[in-house]
Amino acid sequence: MIEIKTSSLSDGEYNRGVFATRDIEKRELIHEAPVIPYPNEDHEHIEKTLLADYAFEYGANHTALLLGYGMLFNHSYQPNSNYVINFDNDTFEFYAYTDIKAGEEILINYNGFVDDQELLWFDKE
After folding, report:
1. Does residue 13 carry a pLDDT above 90?
2. Between 116 and which of 1, 105, 111, 125 could a Cys-Cys bridge form, CB atoms 3.0 to 4.6 Å apart?
3. C-alpha span between 81 and 8 (Å, rounded)
4. 10 Å Cβ neighbour count for 91?
């Protein structure tokens, strides 16, 4: 259903993105990514690495690194997918927010909500 390909949206050395290999219907589960959670106070160590740009908030007291394709979805303020945190299963579940055509890049809003238009750190510079 999904694959990693070169994205025109990403810049820099790692210009990967997640793309649909077939048409995906609105609300369809796209990917379930297991997480590696860690306490927020440990994030100062991650901040010294490239992984800092890929970490997700995981509840009030934790941050998480996502496995699978979880950390490879690119950002859009008009995303075609969203994610739900499943704390019971320790996963992030990515769902189609709109119908997605085969070959289309699958995008999430890094703010955590599809309609959140607050500028992110990389757009404030």
Report:
1. no
2. 111
3. 18
4. 21
**DSSP letters spanning 46-112:** HTTSGGGGG-EE-SSSEEEEE-TTGGGPEE-SS-SEEEEEETTTTEEEEEESS-B-TTPBPEE-TTS
**Token digits of residue 52:** 């800092």
Total domain count for the chain? 1
Interval 79-102: pLDDT, tens = 999 999 999 999 999 999 999 999
The answer to whether the predicted template modeling score (pTM) of the entire model surpasses 0.85 is: yes
Residue 19's CATH number? 2.170.270.10
Tell me which residue range forms the domain holding 91. Answer: 2-108
Query: 72 near 45, Cβ under 8 Å?
Result: no
